[in-house]
Amino acid sequence: MTMFRLSLLSLAMLTAGASSQVLAQQQQNNPTTPEEEAEIEVIQVRGFAQSLFRSLDTKRFGDVVSETISADDLGALPDVSIADALTRLPGISAVRTGGQAAEINIRGMSGGFVFSTLNGREQVSTSGKRNIEFDQYPSELINSAAVYKSPKASLIEGGVAGTVELQTASVLSNQQQHTFTANLRGMFNDRANEVPDGEEVGHRFSLSYQGKYLDDTLGVALGYARLYQPSVATQFIGLAYNVSRDLDNNTTPEYISEGFEIQHLGGEETRNGYLASLEWQPHDAFSLKGDVFISQFDKEAFARGFRVKFEGATAAITNPIYNGSSVIGGNIGRTRNGFTRVEVVNDDNRDYDEVHSYGVKADWDINDKINLVFDVSHSRASSDFRNGLLWSLVAQDATLATPVLDPNVSINYQLNGLNLPAIGLSQAAAFSDINRLMVSKYGIYPFVNSDEVNAARLDLSFDLELPLVRSVEMGVRYSARRYSNDRSVFEYGSDGAFLTSQPPLRLTQDMVKVVNFKGDFAAYPSYLAIDLDKALAAWFPQGVPSPVQSWGAGNPDVINGNPSSNVNTPWSVLESGKVYEDVLASYVMLNLDTELFSLPLTGNLGVRRVTTDQSATNLSDVGGDPLRGAQNIADDVGLINTRYAFDIVGEKYTKHLPSLNLNLALTDEWQLRFASAKVISRAPINRLASVTSFNISDTGEITGNSSNSPFLRPFEANQYDVSLEYYFGAGAVAFALFYKDIQSFIQDDVLPEFDFKAAGFPVPDFIIPDIESGVPVATRNGSLFTAVNNSNGGYIRGAEIAWTQVFKELPGIWSGLGAQLSYSYTESEVSLINSLGGEPFETSFEGLSKNVVNATAFWEYEGIDTRINARYRSPFVSSQVGINEQITNFDSELVLDFQFGYQFNDNLKMLFQVNNLTDEPTKSYFGQQAMTGTLQYFGRQYFLGAVYSF
């Protein structure tokens, strides 16, 4: 048998139908002798193996440390979003939301440190932060994805953890003139029957077309992807330890949890994605391409069950069970003046998210030495999240005209670590009794935010072909980002009581049904599920009053002919605002091509200069003093508040970001990489929003307080990467070490002698503290307590090893067997203090798992394509969502996915997949496993469908 060795690049290009120009260049760089040419035997590699080779070649011939996923890989797996696909890469892990990957972590750093682009353009987010929500991006519309772990000067700044570059199709590079693909898959969740009104069945559908016209000078791509899926879960959530009392009279306080929730979650998620691309290349030296990407993701969800509120400061607590100084069990009772209670919850949440991305790019080879690229883009995101809550309490008699709370509240509980706790509730029978259960509060709390960025960039490259420098690149980019968030509210009723000043919200038999917990949760009490549409139609015959942004006058709508309640809601105004961010960046980069010890050395050396001008609207609490700028500020209902001064504050700063990437070819198979760079990640965009309270004392000293700050500087780090890579005929092995020296973090702290006036705050030069004397006193700077960049950083370091191989040497049907395995180890000296578990304890950096393992075994033979993937991550720190977002420790998790496909012919392929094969739950805890956080069970997702293409 004749044998041969092709580089992975040649193999991938042959199987993918690459252009003859690329192959010719590869052959020129690696010429073969006539004897070698006679021994060449072409190996046909298709499907998943082909996509692996393409990804390895991108990594091998790239000029930075990176990981990639090819188009075939994304097209072959029915990933719900691009996030699922990215988690199969070395050093990448995911935080699951609702059982699915939404946020990705890179090398132990959370999503806030990950910068993302689409077709090289900055993307804004629906999250209200900077990190994009990857489940917004359908995998069917993404042609390739790359994770850059080391930067270069030409990349847009913003990722301390790394940069994720998503790419859509480039039609003119296709080998075929026209391609059309239709994809239809049904899905089923096996735990949906445990959630009353939970949907079991969903579907995915996509269409795409790519075609070349006018002698291959005009390319058109169109794509549509639809996802409809049930969202179901059953969960226990333990809440933070926010109260301390000396229960055993030993002068040392014990910490008491806020309580816990046991709930059914259900609903539906609908995502529609649209893609359009027009590419024009009238001649070889010029091309013009326009792209449009739109994703609309609507989520309607309910949370039903009950919430136990201990109110530990006033509760009667007997027989406490301790874990150290924290209470994890005992009997909790309501005192005469206390507020201990059990709320039956029927919440209704709706989230309407939309992302738009538009861009036009012109690429012009001015001559055979000079290339110019000009790109303009617009990205915008909007999110309309409406949290609707409906809480009920147990009354002595809910049929009375004026219901009275049942004071006989007794709660027996004992947490059971990462297993479900034992619970006994004295009012359990009343939760499903319409004559005892009474609605105490209905509220709607919209959170509407918008985020957009307009950008333009110009890049020039010059081929020099000098002994050391192959070419030089330089460019400039300007972007203008605008972020706004608006809060509003409608409330009726009270959290912990029945208000006698309002007509009661009565339940009728046609509004409710009794709901039982099933499966692992079957021991917990039944409760009444409320049909919200029927209830609201009865309570609000004229329609539900619209939420408003108000200082606290309530709104003028009426309910059943009576005025709605006056509520104290100044937060709806204070938490609303705008952020402005203008960035001017420029860079110069040398592309290296030389030799070191007679070995080929390539790479790049450059520096990026970034000037950021950031500001935000600010409401300063000046106590209504007109001398300090107090203004008449109206809310949505016309109420005037005179306590605050409105202004815009912020600052401007410049950063220089050098970078170096070197690649030394030790042999044809072995190469050594080294990378070093200074990197930044800007603060979450919502942390730049500003509300400040400040005071001027009689001596003229100015002091202030602000939860956020428009003066926040970016996170900074110096990072270093070394990797050794070995490429062989049907696979590769890579070993990497990395080190990040984090320079600063955001934390709340005191800034002494802060210059309020220079920062733009409305402070006078003088005050008159004594009206009778009339003697002016000069103001002077004092302290500002706010979010700041501290200088107590630390390292994050680790190692990665990855192995990929197709066992072509095996006989017969086993020749299609292959494997992909990666392991990452990460550690950090950075420790954060968390007090949500009671006594303050140290936690690791958010998102850091010491051990991350990704393993895939696959087999392809005569149309059969099957694989199983396992993703493991050790414990890490992230946020759980209860009443409020809370930082907790998440337990390790192992998620298994399975896929089977069969290719009937060149056009038709059948697919079957199971996600979360072992029904792996999400489990978290507060510092120690005895203090339970989240126990959430999602179920398995089954997919069955077909792909037709021609």
TrEMBL record:
Its main location: membrane. Keywords: Cell outer membrane, Membrane, Receptor, Signal, TonB box. The keyword Magnesium does not apply. Residues 67-162 form the TonB-dependent receptor plug domain. InterPro entries: Beta-barrel_TonB, Beta-barrel_TonB_sf, Plug_dom, Plug_dom_sf, TonB_rcpt_bac. It is found in: Cell outer membrane. NCBIfam families: TonB-Xanth-Caul (TIGR01782). Belongs to the TonB-dependent receptor family. This is TonB-dependent receptor. It comes from Alishewanella tabrizica.
